[in-house]
Records
---
Amino acid sequence: MSVELIGYGAFFLTMALTYAIICLGLNVQWGQTGLFNVGIAGFVAIGAYVSAILTTPDTANRFGGFDLPIAVGWLGAALAAGIIAFLIGWLTIRLRSDYLAIATFGVAVAVQLCALNLERLTGGPFGIGFIPRPFASLAGDPLAFSLLNLGVLVVVVLVLYLALERLVRSPWGRVLRAIREDETAALALGKSAVRFRLQAFAIGGGIMGLAGAAQAHFIGFIAPENYLPMLTFQVWAMLIVGGSGNNRGAILGAVLVWGIWAASAAAVSAIFPPDQQARAAALQIVMIGVALCAILLLRPRGILGEVRVVSRHLGRLSPLKRATSIPQNNEPQHVQKP
Amino acid sequence: MNPQAIMDGLITGSMIGLGAIGVTLTYSILRFANFAHGEFISWGAYFALAISGALGSLSGAFLAPIGPFSFGWSLPLATVLAVALTGGLALLVDALLFGRLRAQRGAVIIMVMASFGAALTLRSLLEFIFTSKPAYFSKALQIAMPLGGGLRATPDQLLSLGIAVLLVVAVHLLLTRTAIGRSMRAVSENQQLAGVVGIDVRKVIRTVWVLGAGLACVAGVMAGLLVQIRPYMGFDLLLPLFAAAILGGIGSVPGAMLAGLIVGLTEAFAVQLIGAEWRAAIAFVILVAVLLLRPQGLFGRPE
């Protein structure tokens, strides 16, 4: 295997994993809690811009350029996106469920406008460049550089995955599911639905912000056109394909859909003449859109689907009892010991 | 402040209002926020563009301007056909997607998500067929006539305003004075109960789609006539549409139109104050303010 191939593989996987982080964030909001976020691109953009402003070196015509360590930028990104998510959630979660969708759509539009127009802060349409990349000192050795970058993202995704799995199985995660499945029952047990939903929405938003920061530092350059509604759409397709409610599904869906996307983009540029490529790219979006609707219709669970039972205690029931109490349970239990 | 902002606001507002009526009807009767509604505006405009182009190439007589207006008979004829086609498109999307999801009795939010997917599919199809280059119904330039008080308007703009007012009155009468209008309001109150007393719920749903899509098509033709036609024209109107539907109160047709005018006028005045680059944010600010202060809207009932 040639060095280029490994290099490309590492690049592809790194990109896919940044999407996997967004997907994990969306899974907290939608998969676990049933909150519909149409403004993913906005939250990702907030993270990317906050981290870029915190970590880039001082620039003449732009506010910011604090030259802080990358880790500080990432934390700031997650915090900022989380706070915005909290505010929007606080505004809409107590209202009808689609008001949240409409409001998040508005966030994406507003963030896009701010990125374009607040030139002193965001660099306007030209965006922000020279965002410090992790292991920049190794840039002379492309292979080691890309593999190390991939390593960073693998670690981030793994840590997030383990933390979220822990969270899903915690009492907190069980309350979230209870609220999603039967709000009245959860309320009757004294759980404040609004508060739990708000927490989940803010955590999910924060994870999206972190993903935006990771993406920005990996590419080294951000501009408003990276955060169009298309991004929101891709991430939704990833989660739905992989299986919403399942963290492994979120990661699998991200890698798979990103793979299909990259492959179809390559096919478009190979098959169509240069003057027709913008048109053909529109077909790519049509394809993903039809696929999303088809999965919603035909296999709403996605590839992996949700593990219906997360409690360790239910796993200890005898198989017979479990079969009668949870009829649609066809997933392997994570604790199978009798 | 430039009084011309009033005219600009009224025109944008009447387009937003026509679109918002469709949003508010789908929301109150089918019970989901339809993110694909903006695409009916774009598809309506492109349907009219294609048909009026075909009519024009058939006979030059269709292109000769009518009276003071910038367009010939090809455009009114094309609009009538385009309204029918856009209604058909809405029924097709319903048959392929929303109807099946309704039959599966899925969560509301699945419908919202599906509408989001349908929106991107429809928009990208337009981009594929017509490319993203802006198009126009007519290249003729119109001179604005002074109306007094510093206001000026072109004949096209006045005609559009008049048509918008007529349509709103017609829809309001349809909902309040006819049998199908009563059925629609019954279904919006309680779908099961309406079905039990013998109302044909499926017919009501078809009416809602055709009515909403038809009004969206007219809004699209107006936007195409007064501004330009782009695949993203409907998408750019989506947030103002939602803001107007919620501000007017979900389910209220006069509310949607009035709120559309409010959003349009606010945009026009705000553009004068803070600059045109922030236009798209105005609807968001209005939306946040409504959700914060009066979530049921002007004419809505609290839940």
Note: Residues 3-227 of chain A form one domain.
---
Amino acid sequence: MSNASATGTGKPARDFTFIQPAARRLTEYEALTVHQQPDPLGYDLAGGGRHGAEAFLLRSDGSMPWKVDSTRLRHPDWYRYRDPAQHWQRTYVRHQEQQESAIERATEDAGHNGTLAALDAAWVRDILSTHWRACSHLEYAIFRALCPAQREALGDTISTMLCFQSFDHLRHAQDVVVYLVELERHNDAVDDAAGKRAWMEDPVYQPMRRLAERILNTGDWAELMIGLNLAVAPLVQQVSISSLVRANAGANGDDVAAQIVTTTERDRRRNLAATEAFVRMVLDPAIAEAVANRAVIQEWHARWSGWAAQAAEALRPAFAKLSIKAVGFDDAITRSRTEHAAIAKGLGLSTGGGA
Amino acid sequence: MDSGDFVKAHDRVKDFDWTFHYEPPTRRYPMHYQVPKKTSDPFRHLVRDYVKMERDKDDRQYGAMSDVMARAKMPAKASERWTEVLKMAVPVTTYAEYAAMKCTGQLVDAVDNAELRQGYLAQMMDEVRHTNQEAHLLRYLAKHARDPEGFDRGFLVRGQNMITRAARPALDAFFVSDPIEGAINLQVVAETAYTNPIFVTLTEVAAANGDEATPTTFLSVQSDEARHMANGYATLAAIASVPDNLPRLQRDFDAAFWRQHSFLDSFIGSVYDYFQENRGGSYLEAWNEWIGHDWAGSYIQRLEPFGLKLPRGWEEAKARIPWGHHNIVMMLAATWPVHFMRIDPLTPRDFEWFEKKYPGWYALYGKFWEAYAQMGDPKDGQVPLTLFPQIPPICRVCQMPCVFPRYDQPTVRIREADGRKHAFCSQGCEHLYALEPHRYASAYTWFEHYDGYDLERYARECHLIRADGKTLVPQPSLRWDKMWTLDDIRRTKIEIQDPLKNLPADGAPRLMQPVTLQ
């Protein structure tokens, strides 16, 4: 590129024409996100300059500020990634503010109209306080793990997307806590400490806790994103939150819990789409690394699906505590396996390996 | 939710951690500090409160910019002298935000303290916000300013520019080491000492010069910064409360101050003093108030009971403040063809202001600026670079030209180490190198990149040609009838040469004495 402003007419473009838009026109998301992370071998020095990779200050161990081997995947240009949701901070915060306002109003209304006081004690004690609250620890672990993932990611559009994913999961974890605090004012069956006890001691939740520790120990940012969104979300969160909490909430008169989970499912769909776009980018047959990338992703997918399946399958006893049951464990597992397989099939991945 | 419930919710959201049982926890980043598990809480907001607060602020800022200000064509009415410097300044501040986002991602991972982590997470989102806000400002100016060329490519060329590149060693320090070292660079020094001069005082200058877009953006940014300063103070107080941390803390604090001072004082001072048209206060006055009085005199002194002292480079930095940035702007103007803005010559009215604010200024810099004003016409083919018998080399550590504390009394030193020759602008930068030489093994100066380029080749490769295909983006004046073109710059036959090649080295880099910790 010799002329960053070229329009072909001699008139300035009055826009960031150096960014290659994914579609015909540059979007606001692209303009405000692309080329924020330095790329010493790319645009920063017009292809690498005369000294190759440049770093003004190396890490204290002498490695580069961003490391090519921070993921086992390879791509010639990580900056080509585009989040299908096209979120930048303003659109993302607006979206979450709308979801949070809706939850807040629904909770307030349910408190006033007596819905919260009338909730069945077993539902409140066993499902909300114990099960859902235990699962909030998994959400918190995902939030934490995604923070260093965004630090290490090899492009700005990927980092920004991972920041939003991280924030999603903190929101999910906090919404459980805040709902139980509200509920406590209306319903004596709330026992907030039950969730932590279950998380630490109950055998039902130990595969999930083990999974959470694995998540927190995962250093490869792409592996983490792929494992979370292609295996953990369709298998673990689908069974533990969508089926056990949301699908049974209506029958148990708990519209607020259903609404909270519905917002997390919206986030989950967005994060799945973001991950699918990422996987398609690294498996694009047009890049030389596609074959090797496929083998790595397949390996990750099998491993994470196995871990996630263990965590999901251990939840049968939690379903047994439902006094009013709309969706049971077997239906939940079947649905999650179907969803998991459909996602894998859509990306051309095999599901043989634990799920 | 009443206040009792709020406190309850807030306590519970800080109780998600547990001790690993199934596998040993991984440490991703080097940590030289012990962090107490419980400390004061710098951020008492839930996600729900946070998104409401930020959405309100976003609506006010973007609403104002897209509505009244754009319709009234306000950006095009601002002082052009002022608006031009934003072409180089905003890409730098935007990168500072992005680097801060990386820093807080490390902190959430490494700091095992739920109170502090809450604050870091909110800050991580804030930094995404600020990156987007400032990128939006740059794009807004590309759309609405009288001269868009430069605004339209700031993010593309900031890594290639002699001056804006120098932001990287300071800002990369936010996230390339021990996460606490990053926090000291970001929160304790850059944000607490320097964001008030950048986002508060500089916006007063902007508004006085008819620019409403920058204050609208920057004041919204600054509304988050108070929380970040609280994060910094909470982090620092937590670290300082463990006596074993103190030697490392002092070392990292000393290094962080020097890195941030080396770039930020020259950068902010240049923008502040040289691009005002309707003139008010000086950077020296702002520095004395915000950094000398508030930061060093109040904020840091409150930590003295813990044993933390003012950074060791404080006196050397203070000595550089009155003149440092004047030398950098002189270098900027002398090398105008390699930048991406138009630099307005100073006038006698400016001279009076400078002499009043910086007594002795005219004797040091007046002649240069008079000559600069005479050399703007492309017909004459004169570039002010030729006024200097010797061009200063660039410092290996801070990447700034070695013109400190004054161009005529530089503290530059040339050393040889690790198979290369290095220039260091100061004792402070030489010390940083000697302390950790391996961290500069991939650092190259602007001169090392472009040695041997003629100005035409530089302009072509570094995107400095306007949409007409011949006129340069950089110009030595604001005159539309005297614009330099590729033909004009070709006629000067100037070739970029690395001055370091011809300067003899004098031994190896040396540490400052006494060396407290290595």
Note: The two ends of chain A are 48 Å apart (CA to CA).
